[in-house]
Write a structure and sequence with these properties.
The chain is α/β, with parallel strands linked by helices and about 350 residues long. It contains twelve helices and twelve strands. Helices cover about 45% and strands about 15% of the residues. Helix 2 crosses helix 11, helix 3 crosses helix 5 and helix 11 packs across helix 12. The longest helix is centred in the N-terminal third of the chain and has 41 residues. It starts with a helix and ends in a 14-residue tail after the last helix. Pathway: Carbohydrate degradation; glycolysis; pyruvate from D-glyceraldehyde 3-phosphate: step 4/5. One of its GO terms (cellular component) is phosphopyruvate hydratase complex. Pfam families: Enolase_C (PF00113).
Length: about 350
């Protein structure tokens, strides 16, 4: 049975809430609200900037309820949005100053202004362009978290999607910059050192890294996962494929499964691979896909399977909010029985 038919049967046939029906199918007696991984900065092949990695996300693990996690994520998102709007306005101001400099140079004797503002303009432009770099993106997210006052309650995750910029055995962090591409190649060992710094330096509380290496680079992902310094999530690495999941388990290549239900085929198969992951104490992340609709099925799936984590994008736009609103409704319906994954997000 195709995933679509499996989905229809599970959604419209039962006379109980969908998340409870999924829990019954999977044999689970407890249901847990997942920690949302809110995307704050997008890069990679789908974004119109030069950031190589796909996403920088935040995880409000210190919230007590899903509702509080939504508040934390929304406040941080809007603080970052305000900061980026300010930077954009500074660039517009810089553009006006550049025109003024050109005017002064064209008519040097007509104006009594002898300030070298051209350098100021350059600094403004560089400042905004830097938000497309790896560390500057993290700095902006960290600043937004600090502005909300949730420093101890929000952690950072990154979806590297390294397959997109792997060339042979090297990783090109400037692959989206035509003038720089090929000048910033990193070996697998270089990438490991970069990740180690991000996960162990206090400045960046990175606790989640998805697809840190090419999907066929089993050697480096196995070594990095063995360090035990963060959750290493297999997305492209595993492709929700039972055979690749079994191989990753045997080789200890990662410690979390990214589940995209339309990759796996049916709801039954999704339940089976989640059980496979949980049997070896992996984390499980239910994920949306590009080109999403306003259907909220993955919200019920995440609760019914107690995955502990969900990726549904930023707290904005209808197709994303549909999932988050459904999770809020589920939490309200469960009442005192509602349990938020929180600090147990890796092993729920």
């Amino acid at each position: 049975m195709s995933f679509f038919l499996s989905y229809l049967v599970s959604k419209f046939c039962p006379q109980v809430p969908l998340y409870k029906h999924i829990a019954d199918l999977s044999g689970r007696t407890s249901m847990i609200l997942p920690v949302p991984a809110f995307c704050l900065i997008s890069g990679g092949k789908h974004a119109g900037n030069t950031l190589a990695i796909q996403d920088i996300t935040i995880l409000p693990v210190g919230a007590r309820r899903f509702e509080e996690a939504m508040q934390m994520g929304s406040e941080t998102y809007h603080h970052l949005k305000g900061r980026l709007l300010l930077l954009r306005n500074m660039v517009h101001m810089g553009a006006m100053l550049v025109k003024m400099v050109a005017l002064l140079q064209t008519f040097p004797g007509k104006f009594f202004l002898h300030i070298d503002i051209s350098l100021f303009c350059v600094h403004l432009v560089i400042l905004v362009l830097c938000i497309c770099s790896f560390r500057e993106g993290l700095d902006l997210v960290k600043e937004a978290i600090s502005r909300t006052g949730y420093n101890e309650k929000i952690k950072i995750g990154i979806d590297v999607s390294a397959t997109d910029f792997c060339i042979g055995t090297k990783y090109d962090l400037d692959y989206k910059s035509p003038n720089k591409s090929g000048q910033n190649f990193k070996s697998g060992e270089d990438m490991i050192e970069l990740y180690k710094e991000l996960c162990t330096v206090v400045d960046y509380p990175v606790v989640y890294i998805e697809d840190p290496f090419d999907k066929e680079d089993w050697e480096h992902v196995k070594y990095f996962s063995g360090l035990g310094i963060c959750q290493v999530v297999g997305g492209d690495l595993l492709m929700s494929n039972p055979k690749r999941i079994e191989k990753a388990i045997q080789e200890s290549a990662c410690n979390a499964l990214l589940l995209k239900v339309n990759q796996i085929g049916t709801v039954t198969e999704a339940i089976e691979v989640v059980k496979l992951a949980k049997d070896v104490h992996w984390g499980v992340v239910i994920s949306h896909r590009c080109g999403e609709t306003e259907d909220s099925f993955i919200a019920d799936l995440s609760v019914g399977l107690s995955t502990g984590q969900i990726k549904a994008g930023a707290p904005c736009r209808g197709e994303r909010l549909a999932k988050y609103n459904q999770l809020l409704r589920i939490e309200e319906e469960l009442g005192d029985q509602a349990v938020y994954a929180g600090d147990d997000w890796r092993m729920s």
